[in-house]
Structure formats: structure tokens, C-alpha cells
Amino acid sequence: MKKEQILEWLKTDDQEELEKLWRQSDKIRRDNVGEEVHLRGLIEVSNFCARDCGYCGIRVSNQDVCRYRMTADEIMGCVQMAVNFGYGTVVLQAGEDYGISREWLCDIITHITRETNLAITLSLGERDESELIAWRRAGADRYLLRFETSNRALYDRIHPPLPGRFSDRFQILRNLREIGYEVGSGIMVGIPGQSFDDLANDILLFKEYDIDMIGIGPYIPHPGTPLGMSSEEHLCLSGEQVPGTELMTCKVVALTRILCPLINIPSTTALATINRVEGRVHGLSRGANIVMPNLTPKKYRELYEIYPAKASCDENADESNSRIKNSICAMGRVIGVGRGDSANKKTKAV
Ligand code: 5AD
What we know:
This protein is of the alpha/beta class and 350 residues long. The protein has helices at 3-11, 15-33, 72-84, 102-115, 129-138, 152-158, 169-179, 196-208, 226-229, 246-259, 269-274, 279-285, 298-301, 317-330, 343-349, and strands at 36-46, 89-94, 119-123, 142-144, 182-189, 213-218, 290-291, 334-335. It has a single domain (3-349), classed as Aldolase class I (TIM Barrel), CATH 3.20.20.70. The structure holds 5'-deoxyadenosine (5AD). Residues 55-56, 146, 148, 188, 217, 219-220, 222, 270, 306-307 line the site of 5'-deoxyadenosine (5AD).
């Protein structure tokens, strides 16, 4: 698909045309990755963060956040729940927390690989190459790092680097692949200052970089952040600004599936947050094939507030697990068995 056509889809409001897009992306999903919806148990290990991203509620300068870091025992408790629920993967996610040391995490990864058959995904920000290598050697399988936007000027405006460091997430994504990780990335839809042209470029880059998993969520303003407090002044000229709506997010999910048929695409928590009733199901019926139920203990969940009113914040792991499984089955889809490795990565390995 050419950029002009992507732009046309992004800008259309024609219901009948959009029904065609949903049907096409759903068919491509079915033909390439099947009816299985793989569940990845999300463990929000720590909300400490060294970075000061303009949109994120757990940015270092947000003084209102009560910070926590889970103990190894607490993490292993969540891992056990993932096993009990029949999940194939655990995702260890945190802010860019340098209190998570290389050795501490190596021990936890080793522990998980010894005691379970779970695939291990890490989502810990822009860590040093030596750490990424050590964690891969210890047994981690996948790494998630969203590039958030391919517009460099917009990226720089909302991602102040650490002192003396230059942030190049595309370089890190290439390194991750070299190190042997299955690589996940993604974007936010509707960042103030993100134009339709930027968004079309993002979608084309998913394909160009041959990424194995793409997470796509709407930008949700957080009042405790500079971008959340003063969105208007950052917006693009009228008509060019991408809205952070459910519809726009679903269009990006659908177009991504059409361009990258074999990859894994989660129906994200952010999408479920802006439409609590149907967001997750809409994602799954328009191209997505993954859900990441939250396993984080309830007392920590509400502290991992990257954006406000996050879906499933008011539930425990049991409740999230049954609600998500029920809604997947009600759609006539099947709960995935096994690790749910990326069909895209497998194709490359052959
Ligand atoms: N709205 C939506 N998504 C957000 N993220 C962080 N802050 C927000 C926000 N305000 C997303 C980023 C990050 C992922 C873990 O959460 O895309 O990569």
C-alpha cells in the first residue's frame, strides 16, 4: 500500500468504506495468524523512572507519584499466576529504572526459565547494550520499546534525553534484533503535534523495520504532565492534527495488519481505556491478535499510572483474567496455547 492510500484511509469518515477496511484487516489477520488470541501476563515491576517524557504520568519529575519496586518474591508470585491462568508469556515492564540492576534481573530471568516454560518479554526502556545482552543470555526472549513517533522533531520535543546521552530508539531496535530478541515496538496515536503525514510514515516504518510486534494505543492526556496540561499549544495546524480517538487507533491497527500480515498486534490497554465497553474487542476484530492481561498486584496497579483511569486498575488479576477470556470466547475466537512466538520472526529464522 502506498503512502497516499494510507493517508486516504486515515482521513476518511465514510462508514461503508471503513467497514471494508475492517473486513479486510480481519481477514488478513485470520489468514495469517489465525483465530488464536495469545495472552501475555503483564507485570508492572517498578514505577521508578529516570526519564522525563512530556506525556507520561510516571516521569521522574512527577512528585505526586508514590514509587514502588516489586521484590523478586512478589514478581515470582505473579509469574505463578501466569502459569495457573495458562498464559504463554510474562511481560516484565517498568519505567527506565536503574534500580533494576543487570544482576538482579538476570537472577529473576534465570528463576523464571528454570521453573516455567513461559516466554519472557522485557519492556524496561533504553537500557545499556551490555544489560540487554546479559538479559538475553539469561533467557529473556523478547524486548518491547516503542519508538512513539517517527517525526524526529516531535520525538525530541517530548523525550528529553538523559544528560550526556542521545536517544536513538531505531538504533536500539536494530541492536535488539542483532542480540537475538524478538523485537516489539509501536506508537501513540494523537500525540499533540503529530500530523497525518507523520502517522502514515510511522505505519510505513513498521514494515520497513520488519518489527515482530507492534503496540498501538491512543495518546491519553495525563494532567500531571506538561503535555497533558497544555495540549492545545502543541497541536498541529487545524486539519493536520491526528485525533487520539478510538476510531483513529483502530484504523492504524487495521492498516498495520494489512501491511505486516504476520506480526503480533496487541489490542492495547489504552484502547480499552478510551472505550471501556468495546475498545478491546474492536482492536481484536480489526487486526489485533494479542491481549496483555494485567497481573500486577492491585496495590501497585494504581501507582503505575502512565495515563489516567487505566482500564483494569480497579480489578485484581483473577478478575482481569476471567473478563478478558470471556470476551475473547464471546467473539468466537480461541485462547492461544503455547508461547505465541511471532510468525514474522519464525519466517525469518527459516
Ligand atoms: N497516553 C497513552 N500512552 C502512554 N504511554 C505512556 N504515557 C502515555 C499516555 N499519556 C505509553 C507509551 C509507552 C507505553 C508503555 O505506554 O507509548 O511506550
